């Protein structure tokens, strides 16, 4: 009998005496924010190494001389437009091309990010290039931290942390440390989505204000709020929807729509031209399809035809829309919850309505980043290692194709 008791207890004793590897024990004792910080730091070191490698072989270009420093190289392309906004503001008279069309100008770049950089420049006396990189890095870390909290609302802790890994090593993550507004915008977008899930509608007003003046997403977020309000109304019998919350949620939806129209209205007021903002945006697609009027939901089909011809271009866009719609109903995406899916749908509709597909479209897809929670769902170690390695390789590919300048470049980031 005593031997039988010992035989029963031995496995339990062995389980109690299992010693975890030191690194795993430390990992378990590290708070969530410490884990996110380590992930973010390692990813930035890796990405910085790739950027510096590419900068060493970069020749003279419209923005820098040959072999630029990191901060100089991180502020080419649209970074120079944000710099212009910070130091010179916006033109009251729109520039025109020789044939009378509105030319590319600063009104396409919203004031939120350059205003923050300008404020720090004033406080520190430092120059644009270094401050812009610092601001982007700071907001990228803040986004990673809030993104974990957002994912933790809908996913288990381990999966949420891997979603943060995917965010930090995503193919376009280098732009999170360049002189672009993406880091700042993603931070306020992540905060807005978190507040939406928490149903803290009052706090959404100031967050949406800054978000909508950093990147043009006010209208898309308004649609997401309309879907949120509709869902809460139809489920009010099982999920109480008090009158106060109804008024606040509807009010913030209207406010977001107004903020989505605010910047075009400001451009109109300053320049005296009603289409100042939209005509400026259209100037960037003119090299592809010429100067045309903005017709909602036409640009993707125009782009499809430009890239692939008829009828393949039209069929490709239709197939892309159908495939994306089917993806939204996969189990992994459905686990993200109704509100995050509402945002993804709303922003995708916004992109389909107003943007022309070209190399910058990859950057414009970044606000769909809650979908990383679905990509992070499989728990296979092999799958996760492969996804991370593919993402890192895609970073290098994006830097080569879109960021590096070869003298006759038509693939802007």
Core attributes:
413 residues; 67% helix; single chain; 0% strand; 21 helices; mainly alpha
Outline the low-pLDDT stretches.
5-9, 11-15
Rg, rounded, reads: 24 Å
Number of domains: 1
Q: What is the ordering of alpha helices and beta strands?
A: HHHHHHHHHHHHHHHHHHHHH
Q: What is the helix content?
A: 55-70%
Pathway: Glycolipid biosynthesis; glycosylphosphatidylinositol-anchor biosynthesis
Transmembrane segments: 32-55, 128-148, 160-181, 201-227, 248-270, 305-328, 340-356, 385-406
GO cellular component, one term: mannosyltransferase complex
GO molecular function: alpha-1,6-mannosyltransferase activity; GPI mannosyltransferase activity
What does this structure look like?
- The chain has 413 residues and is an all-alpha fold.
- It has one domain.
- It is built from 21 helices and no strands.
- The longest helix has 29 residues.
- The chain is globular, with a radius of gyration of 24 Å.
- About 2% of the residues have low confidence.
- InterPro entries: PIG-V/Gpi18.
- One of its GO terms (molecular function) is alpha-1,6-mannosyltransferase activity.
- It is a multi-pass membrane protein.
- It is found in: Endoplasmic reticulum membrane.
- Pathway: Glycolipid biosynthesis; glycosylphosphatidylinositol-anchor biosynthesis.
